[in-house]
Structure formats: structure tokens, C-alpha cells
Amino acid sequence: MTKKSDIERWSDVVQQMNAADLPASTVPLHVLLGEAVDVAKFFEKYWKTQVDAQKRVTRLGLESAVPKDGKKGDAARLGPKTAEEILSLQRATQEAQTRYLLTVEKNKSPRERGKFLLGEIGATLSFYFDDGVEDERDEMLARIDAAHAGDPDTADALASALHDYATLGEKHRDALDGLGGFQAEYLDEARAVAAELRSLPAQAEAISRQAQEALQLRNKLAALLIERMGLVRSAARFVFRSQPEIVREVTSAYERRKRAAARRKAQPGPAPAAPSPAAPAPAAPAAPLDG
After folding, report:
1. Which portions of the sequence form the region Disordered (predicted)?
2. Are 222 and 25 in contact (CB under 8 A)?
3. 216-247 pLDDT, tens per residue?
4. Rg of the chain (C-alpha set)
5. What is the full DSSP assignment across 45-76?
């Protein structure tokens, strides 16, 4: 019997989903696919409850969040195979993304190349800056992430994002070149594609019906992946509520940077200095003594 592909494995679930009801993703696809692997590893590491030789619990596991009375709910969907399901959905989403890219009429628009370059530059910057230390580099990337988090799917928005990420990448060009296969020439190409995108007509570009269907498939699979990852993160926040260092292992570094940037943006600037008190008026000259 031929083994089903990852997309085929989830086809029945996908068919029951309504594209109009899909939640909006706040994380770029390349970030989501990378974090999915991290969440699966976290699940494997912390699923089982640890006990010592005397059968005393030394650390609760995620399995402790699953209700034992059969009560339905999100936690009830967690199980020993959750990590494998996340990895399967990750592969399916990546495969669906590839199908979508292959169906788009690339010769008519530089948008797909622009999206590829944006993903490569963003992913490489995130990896290079993620050294466990929050510094000025992280702040700059967080500000750019926050500025483009809600961008519409337009040529102008993509051009703006390409320009911003490429400008930041240029500051670290030598360090990024060759990192994980990244090519420094992508930075030059990103600026060229941004200029080309800005020269396109203002109206949205139509894509073929086949491309629309491929895009919907990718979005549905991504929504399932986000849901499974959310179950793990929710259970982790509950089980390890007194161990924030463990919870941090499974939270999204991308979302943390966005929140940090939002907090900095919301902080009021320093209050203007109070005006210096007026200098006292000079004393009136003393009246001459009567002599």
C-alpha cells in the first residue's frame, strides 16, 4: 500500500474547512515553519512527567494537562503523537507553498520573487540576531517586523518591506553572506525588485484560479499547524506556570520582538523639563541715610 503524502493525510480535514473563516496569521510563513520544528522538539522533551526512583514526581509533563475524565476540549486533543502531527503539518504546509509558487504566473510579476527574497532576508536576520541577548540589533529588527506585520498583500507594501529589510541586512552584509546558504546578492536584488514593484500599475494583480486554489490549500494547512502549535503552547503555559524559563523555550521569538517593539512604541517620551524658576528681581537700591 502506497504511503500517503502529508497533504493527503490532512485532506479530509482541509475539505471541511471554510477559507473565509481562517484566522489571520500574525507570523510570516518562513517563521511559522521554523518555529513548528522547535515546538515539536519541545513537546517531545516535556511530554512525559518525570519521576525519581521512589516514584515521586520531579517535574510535571504536558501529559498532565490532558483531562482524565474524557472531558472534551482543546487539551483533550493533545497526545503522544502531537509532535509528529505538527511535523507532518509543517511538511504539508511547505509542500503546499511550493505548489502555490509553481502555479503562479511568475513571468507577469516580480511579486513572487520579492516574497522569496523577503523570506530569505527576514529568516537570516532573525537567525543571525538570535544570540540570546536583547540588543540594538534586535530592537531594529523588531521595529521593522512590527511596521510590516499588518501589511496588505499589495505590490507597494511588499516593495516597502523589501527596502526596509534589505537596508538592515546591508549593515551586516559580510556576516550574512553564506550563512545558511544566504547570498549577499539577495540584498541588491531585493532593492531592484522593490523598484520594479513600485513601477507596477496600482490595481491588484489577478492570479489564476489554479493559483488561488493552491493558496487556499496552503492557508488551511497553515491554520491547522498554528492550531496544533497553540495547543502545545497553551498547555505549557499552564503546566509550567511557575517555571517561566521552560515556557520561554516554546514561545515565539518573533512575537516577543513584536511585543517588545509595541511596548517601546507605546511608552511616552520623556516629560519636558520644568522651566527654571524666574530669577528674583534685583533689590531696590537702599535709600540714602539722612545725615
Report:
1. 253-291
2. yes
3. 999 999 999 999 999 999 999 999 999 999 99
4. 27
5. HHSSPEE-TTS-EEE--GGGGS-TT---STGG
